Amino acid sequence: MSFRRLVFLSFGVLVGYLLCKIDWQFQQVGWTTTLNITGSSITFSRNKDMILVAEGKATAEDFLKALGWSHTHDRYVQICLYRLLSQGKLSETFPVNEKSFQLDFRSKQLDLIENSKECYSRLSREELQQAAAYIDGINFYLESSPRPIEFILLNYFPDPFTIIDILTIQKFIAFAGLNDINLQVEKLILEIIRETGQSGFLKELFYPHLNNITQEHIEIYESLKDFRALADHETAHIPKITNSNNWVVAGKLSKTGFPLMGSDPHMDIIKLPNIFYESHYVADGLRVFGLSPVGVPVMLFGKTQNISFSITFGMLDMADYYIENIKDKSYERNGDFFPLKERTAVIQDQVVFFYETSDGHIIERNLEASGEPISTGKYLSIKYPMSPEGDLANSKIFNIVMEKSIFRCMELVRHNTLGTNFLFADVKGNIAYQQVFSIGKSL
Question: Rounded distance, CA 108 to CA 103, Å?
Fold first, then answer.
């Protein structure tokens, strides 16, 4: 190791030590501070379980400001990395390697930023105000606190967050993580058929769902151009909620007369920090205890003084693969050809071409082929249920913690496009189940 490198590392360790000493006060039980976040006076403290507890007014805006500040205070690096991952900018910021290229490729392919901009244009005034409150909490911490040692060593200065950023993070977690569960099974079946030319044992294994596969289908699968194998899908660093379960019992069946609710999200526990963050919020007439995804202003598991709520992944077939017939950069629909939308992106100094149909089918090609324009042939495409009209990031799900009626909660979540199961219960003993999803129309 060179003397110059040794000095650099020693300086980094010293800076990290000093920052840890400074920040240690925020990790002690009993620590408290009162902040004025864009006009809202909010007090933060650590309870005996080392969970941040915020106290403010009983408004959605104050609650979300506190949530944004808490997310950034305890998960500074995580929330910034989620933003970079969701926008395909990891390679622009940190040392490049093959994995970072694959991750950026995936995010650029999904084009989540453009979809989030369309969602932004549809947000109501109330939703904009609440999303802005969460952003205020994030940016207040970024502007008033030192950068973590990781970012100092990498000379990375995070930009202020925007509403587009949190919309993009939510979609990244939902569609790049959750929907991959379904898509990877479909891709595995296609890959086995392509490699073996056989489908008999798969028909037995997945009976009766593959009964319609014929030799003609197999020949089409084998002829797919620029096929991207499962090995090329880099998803190890994408946060996942890999199935889960929950249950609720009505108050009339319990000894106390109150409902009983259990939540068991099956998390990717080998990854630290966790995708979810536990926090408490206390105000006059409002008490919130729950878990929220880092970077998303939504409580998905928790309770208030009026209701309790829980969510699981619906395991619905929301995203699908399709076969596209491409000719001269046009795709076929009912015998007619329509021009593909072409996008280009630069990842690690390499120009990459992406193609999409007007009805939202993303043409999938392997990493090597994506460096050149698309040619004539049959390709695999993906259709995600990303609707600008409703999902976790821009539905009225923001307001669940402010509600007293479980029936009102059901109305708030019903436009969510991500396949999920919601459970609700209230202090009157009522319980409710709401499954929501959006399924694309098959060709």
Answer: 9
Question: Could you tell me which of 58, 30, 24 has the C-alpha nearest to residue 44?
Answer: 30
Task: Give the E-state strand segments of 334-441 in sequence order.
Answer: 336-339, 341-347, 350-356, 361-364, 377-383, 420-426, 431-436
Q: Find out whether 313 and 243 touch, Cβ atoms under 8 Å.
A: yes
Q: Are 414 and 396 in contact (CB under 8 A)?
A: no
Best CA proximity match to 354, nearest among 379, 339, 371: 371
The structure tokens listed for 188 are 């595995």
CA atoms of 168 and 201, how far apart (whole Å): 40
| Cα distance between residue 422 and residue 248, in whole Å | 11
Helix (H) or strand (E) run with residue 309 in it = strand 307-313
* pLDDT for residue 53: 96
AA identity, residue 411: E
Q: Which residues pair with 338 in a beta bridge?
A: 331
> Quick one: how far is CA 349 from the chain centroid?
27
Of 114, 103, 86, give the one whose Cα is nearest residue 341. 114
pLDDT value of residue 274? 83
3-state secondary structure 123-156: CCHHHHHHHHHHHHHHHHHHHHCCCCHHHHHCCC
Element (DSSP H or E) covering residue 225? none
Q: What percent of the chain has pLDDT over 90?
A: 50
Can you read off the two tokens belonging to residue 9?
């590392």
pLDDT at 389 over 50: no
C-alpha angle 321/88/103, rounded to 5°?
60
Per-range mean pLDDT, top range of 39-43, 344-348, 366-370: 39-43
Span 265-292, mean pLDDT?
85
Beta strands in 47-165 (DSSP E): 52-55
Strands (E) in 111-257, as ranges, are 241-249
Q: Measuring CA to CA, how many Å separate 35 from each of 40, 107, 263? A: 8, 36, 33
Element (H, E) at 322: strand 320-327
Q: How far is it, in rounded angstroms, from Cα 311 to Cα 302?
A: 10
